[in-house]
Amino acid sequence: MAHLPEAQVPGLYHRRIGTILLSAVSDGFLRGSNAALQNISGDDAARMLTEAFRPTPRCGSVNTFLVRGGGRTALIDTGCGPSMFAMAGKLFQNLAAAGVDPAEVDTILMTHLHPDHSSGLTGADGRALFPNAELVMHVDELAYWDDPASATRAAETGQGFPYFAEAKEQLAPYRQRLRLFEGGEVFPGVTAMPFPGHTPGHCGYAIASGDETLLIWGDIVHVPEIQVPRPEVGMQFDVEPEQAADTRRRVFDMVAADRLLVAGMHLHFPGFAHMARHGDGYVLVPEAWNVAL
Description:
It comes from Teichococcus wenyumeiae. The chain is 24% helix and 30% strand. It is of the alpha+beta class. It has one domain: Ribonuclease Z/Hydroxyacylglutathione hydrolase-like (Metallo-beta-lactamase, Chain A), CATH 3.60.15. Strands 1-2-4-5-6-7-8 form a seven-stranded mixed beta sheet. Strands 9-10-11-12-14-15-16 form a seven-stranded mixed beta sheet. It has a two-stranded antiparallel ribbon with strand order 3-13. A hairpin with a 2-residue loop joins strand 9 (184-187) and strand 10. The protein is globular. The two termini are 35 Å apart. The mean pLDDT is 93.
């Protein structure tokens, strides 16, 4: 008998948006407690996950996205890094499987600086793991993580006080190549879409080429089986919970009305989907797998 596989094939999925090649690169998935969900009882959350055939306490995937076009390469978010969860931190092995050296990445676009998105910026020794990349984020995101008063509030509310020290360490080797924006085009074919609430500078990115557009919506949802039908459900780590819920509803309205293709950091890999209205709510429709590019 031939040797049986002991691991999955690399977590990669490629999709063209016009002349831009977008690649979903899996970093793995998160494991956590339903207690992180807000505005829903534990029993309701467990029931909804069970009905959706989703294991608990598993949360969504951790996805990152390569954007390649015009001879340039951007990476949107960097995943959990090597030490956060055993089932995450797979970004670099999947980049290698895609034939991409981290030194080739010239731009890193951050949706925000929570550690499941930013821990892949640096190694255990504090060095930049993307040695030639400019780090790009919303001006309000940097202001939040650099603000001692924000760290104090996070310690009081349980919203992730240790994350401030981690963010400082991750930012350190990129400070001399840091670019901030408020909106507009931030990379050829990529336009920033501020979606505040989860963090003050939380952003999505619209990728457009030719007559095709994709919205990478960042952390609009973390647990799609719950937050798509119940957009009022937030996460413990939402800095402004009411604003995060309002932003989620606004993005859902836009995506459904405009029939946009979306991708998300915590939608199940590879993370591409459409959203449709369903009664008074919404339903997420995963895009069919396409073997052609």
